[in-house]
Amino acid sequence: MQKSAVTEYFFFVLILIILGVECRRMNPEIREIKVFEITNCVEEDIVYEIGAIQMGHQADLVLKLKNTLDKPVVINEVRRFCGCTIPEFETAPILPQKSSVVKITFIANHLGLFSKSIKIYLNTQAKPVQVIFKGEVVMKDKV
Question: Is 48 exposed, middle or buried (0-12, 13-18, 19+ CB in 10 A)?
């Protein structure tokens, strides 16, 4: 191979690697979808068991909120306690018998066991709903 052909080949391989990483970031693995019914008073925590996740990857958890009340429910805030969790939610009211979702993206950036949480503040409750997710971040060859 000539020098320019080797250089072109190198850049071609580099672009493929970058595209692969970007595709993985844009399409994270959805680990679990849980349905949660909004009632007058929610006391229990919602717990996700993620299991093993590879270091450097991310997992999406989806919490489907179904409004079983006879009035609209608004998600006022979703509070995270760690930079490795990114919550996403709709601010529009959830009408009676309708649903909305809270998506939680967990970025696995430290090896070992973990237990993380977020709190969902609803206009219908004085106390927030706590969502806990647990698992283990492992090296690639352990999954």
Answer: buried
Report the alpha-carbon distance of residue 137 to residue 50 in Å, rounded.
10
Q: Mean pLDDT of successive 10-residue segments in the chain (143 residues)? A: 49 42 44 61 79 91 89 94 93 92 92 94 90 91 60
Beta-carbon contacts of residue 32 (< 8 Å; ≥ 6 apart): 48, 50, 61, 62
116, 86 contact by CB (below 8 A): no
Bridge pairing between strands 46-54 and 112-122: unpaired
DSSP 19-73: HHHHHHHHS-EEEEEEEEEE-S---SPEEEEEEEEETT-EEEEEEEEEE-SSS-B
Q: Are 36 and 129 in contact (CB under 8 A)?
A: yes
In terms of pTM, does the model score above 0.85?
A: no
Helix (H) or strand (E) holding 92: none
Provide the token pair at 32: 């679990």
CB 105 within 8 A of CB 88: yes
